Structures are given as structure tokens and as C-alpha cells.
Amino acid sequence: MTMAPARPSGIGNEARNQPEPPARRPQAGAYPWAMALAISVAVCGAALSLNGVLRGWNWFWPVLTTVLTVSVALAALRSVRAQPLLVTAGGFISLAAVLTLTFFRGSSFLWVIPTGATLPDLDRLMRRASETVLSETAPVAPNAGIVMVVCAVLGLAVILVDALAVPLRMPAASGVGLLALLVVPAMIKPQSVGVWSFAATAAGYLLILACSQRFAPDGQLQSGAPRSPGLARRAALTGAAAMVATLLLPLAMPGFDQGTFPQGSRLNPWGGATGLNPMITLGSSLRAPDGSGRITYATNSPTPLYLRSVTVDNFDGDSWGPDDRTASRVPLDGRIDPGYAVLADEQVRLVTAVDTGSFTSPYLPVPYAPETIRGLGGEWTWDPATLSIKGTDTTTRRQEYVVTSTEPKLSAALLAQASGPVRGIPDDFSRIPGNVPDIVKATAKTVAGTAGTPYQKAMALQRYLRSSEFTYSLQSPVQGGYDGNGLSVLADFLQQKSGYCIHYASAMAVMARLEGIPSRIAVGYAPGRLTGATITVAGQGALPEYEADARDAHAWPELYFQGLGWVPFEPTPSRGVVPDYATDAPVPAVPDTLGNNDGLVPDAAPAPSATPSATALPLPGGTGGGEGGSAGVLPWLLGTAGVLGALLLAAAPHLVRSGTRTRRLNPRSPGQAVPLAWNELTDLGTDYGVRAAPSETPRAYSARFRQTLLGEPGGLDHEAHQAVAFLTSAFEHHRYGRPDNSSPATSLRGHPAGQDIQAGVTALVDSLRQNATLPRRLRAEWLPPSVIRRLGLLLGLPFRAAGSGIRKAARAAAHSRKSRAAATSGAPVAGRREAAADDGVRGRGRG
Q1: pLDDT digit string (tens) for 607-622?
Q2: Residue 248 falls inside a structural domain
């Protein structure tokens, strides 16, 4: 007599007497497309907040194309029931294809397949993006390099949000990826994220939650079953909690300033980090003038010194940028030669002892022009064209060193005589872009065109920029949308006549080139203040100590004069010190528009002010705030890409396990429903600590499974007990019973019974999750032993194959040796074995 398998209560009772509908494919129909639309809305909404970080809107169309392409690819693969890992891999492939089509079409195969020629183009765009980060402040020019990196990161964000929402079944957690995209404008833009962008992102996030609630976890509609009000309520509460947390948590987080997100917040996650960091943005720098990045130095100079870190000399019209000239750098193991002759009658040799403290940058702050440096740790190189010193395996952090430098004793008369043609320096310092705005040309011609000598032209430019027509302001460039150093920004600056050191230095450097004077921009620290202490330096005695910090971060122009070298000027009003040779008539101090003359002029007592002080043009790789901090887009984008990749890698075991379960519960062939469900039960046992023994029968394993996992006091519910019994009975009938169409077991191949199997496995999974201990549940979900074991077997396959080959070779070698021994003795091996066998028989008989 054939016994019908026991069924969990309430499982399949409604469908038992109904006609069998055709099997529905999981994740088919509207679900994958609806989810793709929701994710696209959310990510594109977050991308809207980058307006203001990137200038204009031309960058948005490549972003929109990338997001839609990746979303459509994921939806298409999911609609044809591709495996979860294949779907994710398809997302990466589609992202690479659309990036190739957009940015590397000329060097690709069929426009979408990268080739060997694509790599140099990729390197060029990455360097272009890096130069933009190092030299520009928000809003940066949307050049191809920056836009490519933005598209890549947003494409990765689509893949991450999709993975969290669909295969990982954590739609609420997808808001973490969206919030990460909103961090950049919250750190950079004066208006933060913006209401419309925040609203679009929130709408997309709520659409993701709605799609997850509207469709079954396996992607098909829960038709025929009443909608669970509990699920809807939990989804609504989850979404509301996420929104409230986004609005209120910034108020309690260190680094956020006044205001609630998305308006008024400014995030500085580096807190007390120090140095000049391209990742510290203008907005956070202006609002966190905390004196970080403190450097102390003692010098025998009668006046405090400017400390240079990096030279910005490459100007292509879009922005200024440093050129490291990696191929031509020289190891710092001897004397530093400036590479040009100084014809001044008198030169001043200075000794400066520097302690960088916690200031961190690959570029070493030193007085110009250094000759020797003692006491540095690590390996350093210097650029013969700019004398900038850069670490190869170290940074400036906690360095103490003594610099010997030499500078000509300059005077106005000496500079006036230096009017000879320029020779012996690279053309980079004289190159003029072809897109110089008319206002820049007209201003240079009007201000300095009638001057006779290079020195007179330089003085005319400095005098004009320091005149009462210009005001020092930190806010005007940000509010006016010209906070950067490209030519379009320079045109706006000359019209508005308000800005800070980046604008003044860039204006003087560009106009000097237009007037035939080679120029560049030095970035580092203004002279700073006396500390009142003295430092003893060998051979110099006690020298007065000065300090400089992020409030003194500064940029200034240097102009080249034949026979004298690079000469610094100070066009920025109320900042730094105007050198004696550049002072003609006393110019009254011009207060900046914010009244924040906060003691940056040496020996001036710092005046308290509620308005933040100036920040500096960023130095590559530093870690603190300064005047005109850069947009910080590229480091954040690369960091975000790394985080997204790490999250996907960490979630891989969960993705594999979820995908395996989905395939088992939705088999391609109805006849495979029972064995696949049994495989799922044994894997669940392995994940929760009850692994099936190879010789164990299904009934014995089922009994041990229920006794171990389901028989504990206060353990799993009754429905899970019935599900295990039902699955065991069905599997036994499938394996050992007759294929009789009248039996209940064979009816499992139809839709209603298959639905019972799915419901039984789902009930068992839910019961195990709800009743297992937290460590066991986390392990089963995120590091499932069933997946890890198979991965170990897969990784060990080459070693087992090699071991098997070695054993076979050893046996073959042993057999060969025996054969040779037998041949030498003249007796066949087989005959000897037969003789030995006969002896054994006779021996046993005699015994």
C-alpha cells in the first residue's frame, strides 16, 4: 500500500483540486523591468546632485546612458532566468561595453570591445581626471577623464544596488549605496545635495521597496494569495526609518556642520586629519578652519619664509595642473642643482630646520631654492625643472630635516635690468592655450601692455590685482559658480573682481604668459607666525621658531627672469607678505568681504572671527584642509569603486547560495522538483550544522535532522516539522517508488504539488532563520558551509589531480622496477605470483 507523503498544514490545500496552470518562469514578466526602472531612477536621482561638483549638464547624458545600459542588461538577463552570478557578470560586461563605446570607440573592436590600444587611452583619461582633482575646485570642468570615472562609479552603484535588492533580498540596505553617492555633494557643494536630487533619490529608493513588496522573492507575482499586511507595514516602516535616519543622523555625526541633510550639511569624514588634501573639498575647508596640518620651522632668515610643496605649471586652458615629470626625476642623494645660472652679485644662504608633525603629503615643504636636505627618512626624488621634492615610498608625516637653500638678494633695480630673452627652461612654462577669453587678453594688454620691461609688466599686474578694485572673498566664487582655475573661471573672476588666492595667482600667471613672461604657480604655506620658542640647529645656534598650518595654506605665482631664476610675487590682497623688491608704493590693506583677516599676515595676532579663513589650492595626497580645497572627486570615486567591489566580493557566497536555492525551487523540468528540493534540505542541514553522511539513508538523515535542529525545546515550529517529513517521504517515493501516475508522489511533478514543495522548503528556511542563534544564522546566510565546502573542493581539485598523478606515476615506477627485477632473474612476474600462491595453499594444507 502506497502511503501519500505528509504535507505541511496549509501548504497547497487551495491548489490541490484546481486544474494545473502552466509553470511560470521565475523572475519573468514585469518584475525585472520594474526593478531596473526603480534602480535607474534612484541612481540617476543621486547623480543629479553632482551638478555643482561638475560644471554644467553635458556630463549627465553619458551618465544616463551608462546607468540605463547596465540596468537594462541586468533586467534582460534576469528575465531569461540567468543565474545570479551570471546576471552580475553581465552587469560588469555591459558596463565595460558602454564605457568603451562612450570613451574609447576609436581604439576598440566593433566599438564596444576594448583592445590593447584602449589601455593607453584609459591611462590618459585617468591622468586627466587626476590632474583635474589636483588643480581644480568645485565645480570642476567636466572633461572626459572625470566624466569617465563618474560613469564607471555610477555603473558600479547600479550593480551594487541591484545585488542588494534582488538576489540578496535586502532592498532596504540598497539605500546605503544611494547614500554613498550623495556624500560627495554633501561634502563639496555650498548648497549640499539639493532638494530635487534628494527627492528623486528618495523616490527611486521607495520604488525599490515597493517593487520588492509587490513581487514575490523569487520574482513572480503572488497571485491567488492575499497580500500580507505585515510585509507592507514592515516595508513602509523600513523606508520611513531610513528617511528619518538620513535626515537626522548627520546632526549627531562628527564632521557635519549646522543644518539638516540635504540642506546645510557639510561632511568632513577626515575629522582631525591634517595636511593639504585634494579630497578635502572647498565647502568643508571653509567651514573647518581648525588649524590642522601644523608645521613648525626654525630659520636663520631675517624674515619668515614661504614653504613650497608642489609646482603647478601645466595649463591647457581648462585648468592648471602639476606635472611630476616622473621619467626625469632624480634621486635625492646629493646636491640639488636649479639648472640655470644666477647672475646676482649677492646670494643669501639660508638654513631651515623643519618639523612636519602630522602634515601628510608626498611633496616635501621646503624653502626655495633648496640645495641640500639632511635627516629625511625614506626615498625621495626631485624634479630638475621645478625643484619639487616627492617621496617614492614615504610621505612627509613625522619628518624632521634641515634644508640649506640659496636665493639671490633681489631688488627692484636688479629685476628691472633682467630684460634679456629667456633661455634654458622648458616651453611648458610659456605655453598659452588657444582658447583664452577676450576679457583676459584685454585686461593683460590694458594693465601691462604699455610697460617696457618684464619687471614693469609683473609689477603692473600685481598692482592691479592688489588694488581697491578687487576684494578677497571665500564665498563669492562659490556663490557665483566660478570657483576653479580654468580660463572660463578666470574670465568670471576678472568680471566679478572677487576671489581668493587660487584666482589671483592664476590670473597673474596667465596674464604674465600673455605678456611673454614664463610663469607657474607655487603651492604650499604662507610664512606663518612666531611661536615664541627657539630651536637649536647645529652650526647656527638658537633660531626662532615659526608655525604654519591649514590657515596659512596658500598659492602664489612665480615669474622667470633671465639671470635671476624664478621670482615669487604676491597678488592676493590681505594674504602672505609682499617682498621688498615687489613693493613700490604703500598700498592700504584691503579688507576681504567677509572680514576674516584672521592673523595670516606674519606677526599679526589672530583675530577671532565667526567666518572661516581661507583654504589653499590642494596638494596631491595630503590629508588636511587648505585654501581652495579641490573637488576631491577622483579619490572618492576610486574609493567608492573599491568599496563597491569589496561589498560584491563579500556578498558572493550569499549570492551563490541564494541563486542555488532559487534554481532548485524553480526547476526547468517538473520531474526534478523533488530531488532538487532534497538537495536543498541537505544543504540547509550543512549550513546549520547537520551534514549528511555519505552512507546515511534519507530517512535516517531526516530523523537526525529533526532531532538536532527541530527537536530542541522551544525550537522550530510545527509547520517546519511537517515540511521535513513531507520532503523526506516525497524523496523516498521519487527514488524507490514505482512511477505510478495514480500515486501522490508522481503528482508532485505537476504544478500544485510542486508548489507544495516550494512552500515546504520556504517554510523550513523561514523557521530555521527565525529560531537559530545569531552566530549560526549569520554563518548560514553569509558564509554558508555548503558553498564554502564546494569552493574548497573546487580549489583543491588541481592539487588532488596532481596527487593522483604522482601516485599513479609512483605505482608505474614500482611496477617497472619489479618487471626489470623479474626479467633479470629470468622468472615471469605472473609465474612467480602463481608459485607463491601454490606455496600458500600447500602451507595452509600442511598447517
Answers
A1: 333 333 333 333 333 4
A2: yes
546 and 643 part of one domain: no
Of 37, 281, 78, 47, nearest in space to 156 by CA: 47
| Nearest C-alpha neighbor of 276 from the set 367, 187, 358, 181 | 358
In a domain, 657, yes or no: no
pTM for the full predicted model: 0.48
Domain edge (last residue) among 620, 650, 680: 650
> In terms of domains, do 636 and 537 share one?
no
Residues 108 and 177 both lie in one domain: yes
Tell the residue number behind the cell numbers 547537520, with chain if given. 690
**Domain of 799?**
789-846
Run of H or E including 700: helix 698-705
Q: Count how many residues are written for the chain.
A: 847
* SS (HEC) of 708-765: HHHCCCCCCCHHHHHHHHHHHHHHHHHHHCCCCCCCCCHHHHCHHHHHHHHHHHHHHH
Phi first, then psi: what are they for 372, rounded to 5°? -140, 150
Q: From CA 422, how far away is CA 419, in angstroms rounded? A: 9
Residues 779 and 796 placed together within one structural domain of the fold: no
Residue 287 lies in a domain: no
Q: Tell me the average pLDDT across 168-180.
A: 80
Question: What is the four-CA torsion angle of 645, 648, 651, 657, rounded to 10 degrees?
Answer: -140
Sign of CA dihedral 35, 37, 41, 44: positive
Q: Does 408 share its domain with 351?
A: yes
pLDDT greater than 80 at residue 313:
no
Mean pLDDT within 48-57: 80
Same domain, 804 and 728: no
Q: What is the pLDDT of residue 268?
A: 36
Query: How many Å apart are CA 430 and CA 466, to the nearest integer?
Result: 24
The residue whose grid cell reads 558553498 is: 787
Report pLDDT digits (tens) over 276-292.
333 233 333 333 455 56
Q: Report the pLDDT value the prediction gives residue 667, as an integer from 0 to 100.
A: 79
Q: What is the pLDDT of residue 568?
A: 93
Contact 423, 562 (CB under 8 A): yes
Residues 764 and 834 in one domain: no
Task: Show the cell assigned to 136.
Answer: 581644480
Rounded CA-CA distance 160/157 in Å is 5
Query: Going by C-beta distance under 8 Å and a sequence separation of 6 or more, which residues neighbour residue 392?
Result: 378, 379, 380, 381
Q: What CATH number does residue 487 fall under?
A: 3.10.620.30
pLDDT winner (highest mean) among 6-10, 147-151, 644-648, 714-718 = 147-151
Residue 252, pLDDT score? 45
129 phi and psi, to 5 degrees? -65, -40
Identify the band that residue 3 occupies on the pLDDT scale cut at 50, 70 and 90: very low
Closest C-alpha among 551, 569, 471 to residue 511:
569
Q: What sign results for the dihedral spanned by CA atoms 74, 75, 80, 82?
A: positive
Q: Has residue 239 been placed in a domain? A: yes
Q: What percent of the chain stands above pLDDT 70?
A: 68
Last residue of a domain, one of 739, 768, 783: 783
Residues 113 and 223 in one domain: yes
pLDDT value for 73: 94
Pairwise CA distance, residues 132 & 142, whole Å? 9
182 pLDDT band (50/70/90 cuts)? confident
Q: How many domains does the chain have?
A: 4
The rounded distance, in Å, linking the Cα atoms of 415 and 457 is 11
More confident residue, 462 or 143: 462
